[in-house]
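Objective 1.3, modelling of assemblies. Example input:
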Amino acid sequence: MPPDIAPVEMSKAYRLINHGPTVLVSARHAGIDNVMAAAWACALDYAPPKLTVVLDRSSYTRKLVEQSGQFVIQVPTVAQAELTRAVGRSSLADDTDKLAHCGVELFDLADHDLPFVKGCSAWLACKLIAEPHNQQAYDLFIGEVVAAWADTRVFRDGHWHFEDADPSLRSIHHVAGGNFYAIGDLLPAKL
Amino acid sequence: MPPDIAPVEMSKAYRLINHGPTVLVSARHAGIDNVMAAAWACALDYAPPKLTVVLDRSSYTRKLVEQSGQFVIQVPTVAQAELTRAVGRSSLADDTDKLAHCGVELFDLADHDLPFVKGCSAWLACKLIAEPHNQQAYDLFIGEVVAAWADTRVFRDGHWHFEDADPSLRSIHHVAGGNFYAIGDLLPAKL
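Predicted structure (tokens):
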């Protein structure tokens, strides 16, 4: 496990994606790992935590998710904007060395046979909840979060701390055509 | 129609929520209007544009959506952070004057019998695509976007322009407990 990574309580896992970041989706099946970018991922429930993600039928990662029944949703950083664009542009179907060409390095976490992307700020290991109608009609997949971790430099004690972390650790929010906005200033609740 | 509002092409409508803002959901049925906050809204398709939104079964707005088969997703601004917290905290079931107490003003748009919230930066009028299993099992609602508008001070020519608009017009991204982050700096695609 890289330094600075700590588990996140299940009751706080939704907070890792509640602010709407673009995410990386990774999956593994039969010795094949892949990673894609997804702007269309969203929390769905608190306990147990669930989420939705839209996986286009042309994506290789979707096949790995369908075959293995599990996947990782991870939150890329400003420092990974180009990596995120790159994995969104290319397909493992066309480039068997896609991950290396995109600068993706993977790491393992004990008890989870899943590929985790180095350098992200948060990781949610998910078990697919099979909903064939949603998957076929809408490319919509539902996952139950079974474990989560975050980089403690930017998420700790159940809260994001973008405002006092290095700006390169901020989450990125895709609009279109490779243009992202970084997350910005904190607007704290008035107490 | 308030000044500065212009229609958004259907092919660009997904961009209004692609960066993951917290939204306001409004609906009308039998003379009753209501507005709620939702962090769990997400694009689902491009053409026709569709989106998902999670509506808790305790919310009054959900009943109006189920009864009328339509709703509005709108993007509140930094200036509306307190309004967004307020509509998220209170229910029309407990306070029949909720909207006034929360500072919500509504306006009409021709050809749409729906309540639109003044002061937002974008509005997506949606027709409910009934999916009873998703609605019952997951509180997950699917809408097809039938028309969209944006405040041209911050979204025009199919693009957000947060970087050169007044900061009070930035979108807000809820984490938990009334704490939001505003959207931040542009990370343009390298050409």
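Residues 5-182 of chain B form a domain with the Pnp Oxidase; Chain A fold (CATH 2.30.110.10).
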